[in-house]
Amino acid sequence: MLEISSINSYYGTSHILHRVTLGIGSGEMLAVLGRNGAGKTTLLRSIIGLNPPREGTIRFDGADITRLKPHERAHIGLGYVPQGREIIPDLTVRENLVLAMIGLSRRTREIPEYVWDYFPALRPLLERKGGVLSGGQQQQLAIARTLVQEPKLLLLDEPTEGLQPSVMEEIDNIIKRIRGERNCAVLLVEQNLAFVRETAERFAILDTGRIVASGAIGELSGEVARRHLTV
């Protein structure tokens, strides 16, 4: 589904990603881990087109999307939930969701019923502004806002950041359901090892912008974590 081949990405003159090669299959869940500053968010921003690579290629469903604009990538099935959620605080839950549907081919702007199946806690909050929601509610809204775009691949940047364990478990269950029931692959950037081991099938570790370890999630041993993830 997604094939990343030897990409080099920069912020200005700073070389962040160094010949990164990575792939994820249809319906698969891959976790990308790394220390702060390792290049994890840059990787997601490169995939979604916010920070496109200068060299290398990104292919999605067989097509070269390396130079597509972010909105063009969204239209072909890439969905992005950024770190910090970035919901619009002065808009209501309803308005945040409807805004996300602008540009889709649907004739109606009615929020799909499946949203309430995955996020029933949001339905009573439809007219509440996003800025007054709890952290867990905001994270649910951020995922729901991407889900209404009907992605084939969901990119999640630190979805458990700042959440209580009970809320993390709820987010874990939602992600697993979306993946299984909607045949949606998931690329997860996360630092919570327990969450990754519970959720993902495969992992890759970034260190100073390079892939230094990867494999099946069962291979993410304590030794591998200590070598590449501890400060």
Can you characterise this structure?
The longest helix has 18 residues. Strand 7, helix 6 and strand 8 form a beta-alpha-beta unit. The protein starts with a strand and ends with a helix. It is globular, with a radius of gyration of 17 Å. The strands form two sheets. The protein has a six-stranded mixed β-sheet, sandwiched between helices. A four-stranded antiparallel β-sheet has the order 2-1-4-5, with helices on one face. The protein has 231 residues and is of the alpha/beta class.
Structure, briefly:
The chain is an alpha/beta fold.
Q: How helix-rich are the residues, as a percent range?
A: 25-40%
Distance between the termini: 33 Å
Radius of gyration: 17 Å
Rough outline = globular
SS summary, helix count:
8
Arrangement of strands in the largest sheet:
6-7-8-3-9-10
What is the average of the pLDDT values?
A: 93
Main sheet makeup = 6 strands, mixed
Low-confidence stretches: none
The string of secondary-structure elements, in order, is EEEHEEHEHHHEHEHEEH
Tell me the fraction of residues in β-strands, as a range: 25-35%
What would you call the structural class?
Answer: alpha/beta
Please count the beta strands (DSSP E, at least 2 residues each): 10
